[in-house]
Each structure stands twice: as structure tokens, then as C-alpha cells.
Specification:
alpha/beta; five-stranded mixed beta sheet; 13 strands; about 30% helix
Amino acid sequence: MSKIYAVGDVQGCAPSLKALVKKLPAKSKMIFLGDLVNRGPDSLGALRYLKTLQESGRAECILGNHDLHLLAIDAGLRKTKGLDTVEPILNAPDRAELIDWLRKRPMALSNGKVLTVHAGVLPQWDLQQTIECAQEVEKALRSKSYKSFLANMYGNTPTKWSKSLKGYERLRVITNALTRMRFCSPTGQMEFESKEGLEDGPKGYTPWFMAPHRKTTDTLIYFGHWSTLGLLRKHNVIGLDTGCVWGGKLTALEISESNKDNKNSDIVQVDGYDHPLRM
């Protein structure tokens, strides 16, 4: 049986991405945990290579906040920002093909035992509800009216989940949890400003995976998004954004189906991009 690796945020670091894939076993498969593009030196090259890996059956790619940002820019709903490196994608002859491929990628993946997401999971969601919520956003992104979803995607409210939420408010909460969340309150109220370490959230908030009574406590979760944590290996929670775009590493960790087996999982790392603006 082929090994499957979860891979942290690539963020357009095509040279690191290609170096990592070369170091992995030849028949292994990969799940990329979102933020496939942006900030790195070659977002276009990274996106093309990831598309090739996915279409050849070697990989799947989860959507992160930077990937959604690209989709919104492509749709004419957002403008590029100072550190963005997605302009070559927008000027590429295969732009439409790449964007179409990107918006058909999943928001989360699970085999019933392991869950992979970009950012986090709200404490009120169990594994099944997480996947069902992810599929609601996937459906919106894949529909002919996907630009309407993108136009209503941004915003920090509502800050918490409710089963009674409908329409774009419901989709926005799901999207924020899966692609932006780091800290939340015990009741699942999200906070989006804090980006530092585990102890640096505002009073009354904890890292999402430390929320009491979280319904996915018994599910092994792999996630990215939080580069200041570095490689995080806690009980049933694995963080793999090791700051590739900021001079850190691009990290792949063999996926196991239990926390016990995970302690012996194969880890592969390559050097990241020496970003000219990193401190």
C-alpha cells in the first residue's frame, strides 16, 4: 500500500515543492493542506505542478485562504495586495483552466478516521458535520453562480456557528472556520486577528484544537495555516505549516490512522524560500 503524506502550506514556493516531491517515495501520494499559492517566488509554477500531480492521481489539494483570495481576484471581486505573487497566474495563457481546476478542489478530506483541513474545525462539529459543511462550500464554488458566493465570502460575521444559519452567512462561517480560524472561545466564537503562538490569543480564547468538549477530539486531524506554531504534534492534532515561504521548511508527514502510529511516521522536509521581506 502506498504511503500518503500530508504536506504543509506551499504558498507558491515551486522550487521547494519540486524538491520535496523528489524526496518522497516514488509511489507515495500527497494531500496538500491549502495555501497552494501566493507570497512565494513562483505561484504559477506551483499551481501548474500541483494540478499535474492531482490529475495524475498522486495528490489532492485542499483550499486555503490564499487560494480563495486568488479565486476572488480572478473573478474581479478583489485586487492584489502588496505581497501577492499571483499576477503571473492572471496573465497566464492557461489562466481559465487553472482557475477552473482550483475552484473544484475540496475544502476538507476524510477517510472516516483521519481529517485534513487548512485551518481548523469548530468545537461544535463532529467529523461527519465537518465534511458536510465543507461540501456545502464546495458546491457553491463549483456552481455556475460561484462568483456570487465569492462576492459574499468575506467578513468576520457571524463569529460563531449556529445550525439555524442560512445562505451566505452560513457559508461564510464555514469558510472562515476551515480556512482562517486559529483561536476560538469554548463556545466556538472565532477570533481572526491573533496570529502568534498558542498562548497569545485574546483573553477567553484558546487555539481551536484546545477548545473544551471539541467533538473531533477522537479524530486525528492534520492542518496547516498557522506558521508561527511550526511543526506541531499533539494528541490527535498535527500542524504542518512550517513557514516555507518565510525561510522555514516545507514539511511532509506520513499520514497514519492513529495517534500512536503517528509517533513513528516518516517526516520529510526541504528548505523553504528566503523571502526578501522576512524579519
